[in-house]
């Protein structure tokens, strides 16, 4: 067996271990992206090949946590991609609010898919609070954030952030919605109450539905095209009629989803059902 065949065999073993111990669906991710993430941890543990790294995982179960952090790493901050948030604030959310204003229960349900540490979900919460003002408490607002990274979910539920994650945010917003303590910025309880973060695998977990707005930005770029098509169809089905879908600016609808969604603002990758 030559070196390439050995590497391929050990790589397959490694993927099986990761799938079994982390529930991470390796084969659904673009191989180039996946291998780059693995290489980060191999360098950090002085592993020269996949066999070495398998040995590290078997001898040090804590390495699984480091690996998961690397596989799911996100560069994230509040109001990332301001142009998209401007459309959401000026057009999308006001339209959702108008559609609910005459209803009996005034229920608004939003989903941040691949939420990481919750900055996207809380950015939406801040915008809703600004838009509704004194009417805020009259609405039943439920923002759900989901991810496969348990540590990120814990951070999101705590609602605590660093100065870096708040970089570029207007000081008036920081003063109004955050309290600084021991070097952290803690979100107000009023906004934390309307958000709920939980573990959810977009690939294998039960499908969700009944949302007025779904955001899944810069997540599907790591998936193979076939899975992207499936997920976009799932997001379409998760929306109420007239609901909005926001994707990342480098992402593109593929397959059947191109014909399901109607474009609202193609430049900012905002669509509706």
Describe the structure.
It is globular, with a radius of gyration of 20 Å. It has helices at 3-22, 31-44, 50-59, 62-71, 82-101, 119-132, 150-158, 171-177, 189-192, 225-238, 257-260; strands at 107-113, 140-147, 160-161, 178-181, 184-187, 195-199, 211-216, 239-247, 262-265, 270-272. It folds into 2 domains: 3-71, no CATH class; 82-272, Rossmann fold. The mean pLDDT is 90. Strands 6-2-1-7-8-10-9 form a 7-stranded mixed β-sheet. It starts with a helix and ends with a strand. The chain is of the alpha/beta class. It contains 11 helices and 10 strands. Helix 1 packs parallel to helix 3, helix 2 crosses helix 4 and helix 5 (82-101) packs across helix 6. Helix content is 46%, strand content 19%. Strand 7 (211-216), helix 10 and strand 8 form a beta-alpha-beta unit.
Q: What brief labels describe this structure?
A:
273 residues; alpha/beta; Rossmann fold; seven-stranded mixed sheet
């Amino acid at each position: 067996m030559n070196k390439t065949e050995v590497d391929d065999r050990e790589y397959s073993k490694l993927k099986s271990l990761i799938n079994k111990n982390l529930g991470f669906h390796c084969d659904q991710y673009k191989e180039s992206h996946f291998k780059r993430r693995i290489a980060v941890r191999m360098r950090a543990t002085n592993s020269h090949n996949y066999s070495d790294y398998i040995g590290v995982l078997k001898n040090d179960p804590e390495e699984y946590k480091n690996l998961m952090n690397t596989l799911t790493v996100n560069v994230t901050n509040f109001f990332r991609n301001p142009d998209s948030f401007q459309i959401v604030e000026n057009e999308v959310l006001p339209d959702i609010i108008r559609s609910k204003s005459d209803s009996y229960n005034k229920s608004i349900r939003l989903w941040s898919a691949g939420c990481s540490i919750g900055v996207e979900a809380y950015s939406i919460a801040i915008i809703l609070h600004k838009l509704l003002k004194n009417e805020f408490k009259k609405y039943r607002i439920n923002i759900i954030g989901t991810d496969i990274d348990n540590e990120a979910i814990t951070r999101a539920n705590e609602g605590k952030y660093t100065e870096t994650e708040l970089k570029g945010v207007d000081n008036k917003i920081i003063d109004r919605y955050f309290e600084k303590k021991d070097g952290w910025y803690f979100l107000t309880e009023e906004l934390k109450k309307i958000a709920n973060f939980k573990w959810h695998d977009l690939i294998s977990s039960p499908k969700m539905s009944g949302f007025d707005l779904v955001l899944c930005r810069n997540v599907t770029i790591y998936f193979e095209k076939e899975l992207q098509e499936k997920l976009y169809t799932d997001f379409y089905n998760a929306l109420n009629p007239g609901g909005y879908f926001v994707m990342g600016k480098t992402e593109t609808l593929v397959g059947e989803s191109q014909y399901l969604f109607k474009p609202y603002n193609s430049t900012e990758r905002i669509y509706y059902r």
